[in-house]
Structures are given as structure tokens and as C-alpha cells.
Structure prediction request, 518 residues.
Amino acid sequence: MIWVIHTLNGISFGILLFLLAAGLSLIYGLMKILNLTHGSYYLVGAYIGSTVIATTGSFILALIIAPIVVAALGAVMERFFLRQFHLDELPQTLLTFGFLFIFADLSLWIWGGDPIMLPKPALFSRSIDIGGLGYPTYRLLLIGVGLLVALILWWFQERTRVGAMLRAGVDDAEIARAMGIDVSLLFTLVFAVGALLAALGGVLGGPIIGAGPGTDFDVMLLAFVVVIVGGLGSLRGALVGGLVVGLLDNFGKIFFPEFALFTIFVPMAVILSFRPTGLFGRA
Amino acid sequence: MQEAMLAIENIHTNYGASQVLHGISLKVKPGEIVGIMGRNGVGKTTLMRSIMGLTPAKSGRISFRDADITHMPSHKIARLGIGYVPQGRRVFPSLTVREHLQVTAREAPANQWTFAKMIELFPNLGQRLDQSGAKLSGGEQQMLAAGRALVANPSLLLMDEPTEGLAPLMVRELGRLVGALKETGTAVLLVEQQLAFVLKYADRVYIVSKGQVVHHCLPSELAADSEIKARFLGV
Prediction:
């Protein structure tokens, strides 16, 4: 039964990674830039969530407000800053690196340097019995919310007109433009949605892995591994990649506690040597 | 004489470090089918890209129905009513046939090119509505690329080497489409290597060499002019 617990832990961590990687992957797919600010969205999301919980006592409100605020930050970043270097990927990527430091310093200034742990919502602070072992219901909530988000994203991408425009833009941005699709508007949209998902991850992950100075780098690194394993530009890749990395990380820590990141990067290298574009990436 | 709907005046365009267009001027009038011919690498595709705003002209002016589109973003140019069928078709692998014909559709009451009309014109596409664009044959992809541009109901369609790599049967299908465009009064700027195709459908022909228009004539004149054909088309 302990293995069921370990597997659930891996899956719930994987779901968290999916929330982070989905936006990163979409942004890369459409704009061909690695958004180095992506971990900051997680961090700022978690911090804003903690403030909302501290003031209102409501986890639900934190889950709504933090992602919306961070989505607005992402949209502003794209619209007013990255836009200055339209279609020029290198300066755009460097700019996101600059924003990483700005967000880190602002967070340090506003929320201080002590790592925080968000309180679990009261409704999900208990444990349930799984084969004689207690398992926190909060992690099950996390899995449920993550799968729901995956389903909504899938529906949006595959079943809506804007989703089809987005896929067209990822396939061939130039031709999408020439067909009358405002790809620049899609850029802002994916930045906002990507930031929103990462911040959602920040609030949901707050009670499990917390947040503090350096968390932005840590989660960004993991999100990179996820999109590299899953394939850049693919939502399915982000989900499967997230689960693979989440499980590897969890079981790696159990079997080889002294090798922490090693158990993630070695499988990543192996996957890349067989599928250079990742599990669901395209050539 | 009728006003030109598309007027290209003395445009110069660079592609990367090298200059490709050296002062091209040409006009397309409403409903007209204008052929552009020339050997490979003389700048025909770059001309199309400049019109579409994908490789904007460095100098000169491109106007479309009184709007200066020289430096306009591509999607706005498209929305003004210019459709683009790019060289190599470039259908979207992630979109189904149905999505190709719906995603950019703009339908107003007076519009002629609807989803239903495209299916009627290309029954092959109608049988493959839920397949990915990448799974189609070359000919079907060409029809899809044309259909994708047409459902936006452009008043001018740019076609860049549409017969390239097509079987004769498919070339005939394409001819049927160009004929239908002519009937409905949609203007076409047709870059093409197949002389017979241009001679059959074009109202006028421009010959391009080294980024400039070197000759301008009627198809019948071109058919009879073996010197021009030998010098600029290699036939």
C-alpha cells in the first residue's frame, strides 16, 4: 500500500509540474521563446495567495485572485515589453530573464526572505484511509483540479475557434498571419493563460512545497525538464511529461535519496537520445 | 479604364542581407487575372511576400483599394481582402480540413465563398473533413490552401506557383477553380511556371527578371513571342 501512496505523491507533484509546464510549452510553441519568468509566476502566485488567505481566510479566493493578478502581469509583460522586440526571439528571452530578477527582488521586498507555506483549505486538511495508511485529501484535490484544468485546456485548444487559431499559429505563425489571424493578440493571450496556470500552481502547490527566495529558479528548472521530456509546444506533452517527471522525482528520492536531481536528468537524457523532440514534440 | 485595386509602385525589398526586388511596379484591376512569370530566383515569391506584409518592402508603395498597405501587419492586409495561397501550400498539420475552412471564414450576406461552396467545388475535401491537413495528397493540399484563403472572401487572391508538383488531373481541377474565380469577379495575381496554365487563364502577363518587370503583355502576345519566352522563361 505504501507504493500506492508513493505513486499518488508522484502524480500530484506531476500535476503541479503540468500546471507550470503547460504555459511554458504554449508560449514556446507559439513565440519560440523560453519564458524564463515562468517560475516567477509560480512564486508571485503563491505569495499573493498567502496574502489573500491571511487577509480573507479564504483559500478559494486565493485560488481566484492570485491567478488573475498574475495573468494580468503576464499580459502586461508581453504587451508592453516583449512587444518592443516583435519576432526577435533572443532579446525577448533575455528580457524574460530580466523580469525574473525584477519579480524576485520585488517579492523579497514585499513578502520578505522567509520561506512560506500556505495553509491547506479547511475542507481538505484531513487524511483519508488508504489501505491502513493516512493520505492527505489535499493531494487528491490537487490531482482533481489539475485534471480538470487539463480537460478545460484540451477543450479550448481542440474545440474552440480561438484554439484552432492558436494551433495554426503554432504550426506556421507566418501563414496564420497571412490568413488574417491576429497572432500578436494570441501572444498576449498565451502569456496571460501561461501566467495564470503557473500562479494557480503556486497557490495549489503552496501548502505542499511552499515558496521562498529561489523557488522561482527551482520550479522553472523542473518545468524546463517537463517540456523537454514532453516536447515543446504540446499540451499533451506537458501533462505526460509532468507525470513522468513527478513520478521519477518521487521514486528517485525514495530509492536514491542522495542523487536528487540526477534521477530526473538521466531519464531526460535517455528520452532525448531516442526522441530528440521529446515524447510529443514534432520535428 | 478601370481603377487598379492593387497598385505596386517601385518597390525594393531585401530578403535577409540580399536585395531581391529592385523597383517592381505593377497593377491589378478588379476581377482581373494577372500572371507573373520568370525563372526561379527572380523575386516572384518575394513579391508575393511583400504584398502580404510578410517581407515588407524597404521602399516604394503598395496600395490596395486606396489603403497604403506597404507596412501594414499581415493580418490586417488579409482582412482588407487579400487572400494568400503560398508556395508549397503550407497547410496547418494540427488543423483538420474542416478547421482550415472555418477558422478564417468571414461570411457576410453578399459573400460568395462559403464552407458549403468549397465542399461543393472540391468534393475530395468534403470526404476528408476530419482529417489533418498534413494527411492529404499534394493536390488536395493545394485545394485546401486555396479554400482556406477563399473562405475569407478576398477580392484579390495571390497564388504562388499553385500547379507546382501537381498531377495533370489536379492541374485541371485547379484550372476549374481559377475559372470559377474569374466568373465571380475575384481578381487573381498568379505566379506560375507552367506557361500553358498562364496562357489559358491570365488576362495580362508580367515577366520578371532580376527583381524587375522586364516585359508586360497579353497572353496571346507572349504565346507568339519566342524571343521573350527563350530569354526570360527558358522555353
Observations:
- Residues 6-233 of chain B form a domain with the Rossmann fold fold (CATH 3.40.50.300).
- The radius of gyration of chain B is 17 Å.
- Chain B has a mean pLDDT of 92.
